[in-house]
Write a sequence for this structure.
């Protein structure tokens, strides 16, 4: 079951996406906090953020025009920071309706009707991010539906203790690298797993 949002041109950014929440007007978006040197907790963002962590994530995600899809973007703070200067990644955040998004412009935010829905933009995305996902099944369902598409890399970020539940989402066709977040600007108990699709 997928959302009917398959008309997105990942390189076209001038106008809001067709499914944009009209209540989100870009000029009214809150200002982005300046990234801190040490991991800092922000309201509505499970992951503690820092400048070094953001810089590290840019090494994992595709450069423009490559598209990174963040599934379950919440307030969208992490994604909006990655979209902004100096990182300028092409990140689109997906949330469940009614969206909790605060920071992402409509042009880079999409919604699905419920937690069991997937966004078909996954098929066009070079990378997916799952930051503090709530349900292993969501990653499984994206893998089953879209792993054969353009996706080359899946970045999972969450508590180290949760990763053992998620590693099984990736089969033999994926190489997994795991990094403790504290080594790259995050908190000690958080972890970044990078699954890279192996050549056929
Ligand atoms: C624990 S929150 C993490 C939010 C954010 N990534 C963060 O780190 O603060 C998980 C988010 O996933 C969203 N979610 C659940 N099912 C989803 C789905 N099928 N598609 C998109 N988002 C989904 C929820 O609405 C929720 O905002």
């Amino acid at each position: 079951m997928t959302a009917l949002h398959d008309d997105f041109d990942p390189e076209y950014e001038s106008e809001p996406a067709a499914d944009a929440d009209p209540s989100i007007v870009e000029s009214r978006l809150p200002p982005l906090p300046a990234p801190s040197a040490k991991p800092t907790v922000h309201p509505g963002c499970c992951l503690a953020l820092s400048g070094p962590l953001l810089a590290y994530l840019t090494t994992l995600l595709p450069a423009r025009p490559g598209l990174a899809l963040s599934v379950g973007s919440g307030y969208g703070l992490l994604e909006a920071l990655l979209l902004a200067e100096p990182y300028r990644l092409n990140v689109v955040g997906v949330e469940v309706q009614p969206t909790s998004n605060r920071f992402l412009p409509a042009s880079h935010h999409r919604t699905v009707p419920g937690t069991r829905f997937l966004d078909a933009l996954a098929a066009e995305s070079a990378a997916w991010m799952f930051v503090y996902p709530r349900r292993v099944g969501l990653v499984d369902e994206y893998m089953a539906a879209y792993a054969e598409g353009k996706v080359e890399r899946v970045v999972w970020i969450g508590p180290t203790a949760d990763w053992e539940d998620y590693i099984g989402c990736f089969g033999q066709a994926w190489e997994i690298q795991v990094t403790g977040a504290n080594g790259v600007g995050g908190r000690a108990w958080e972890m970044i797993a990078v699954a890279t699709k192996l050549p056929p």
Strands lie at 40-42, 45-49, 67-71, 90-96, 109-112, 127-131, 153-159, 174-180, 190-197.
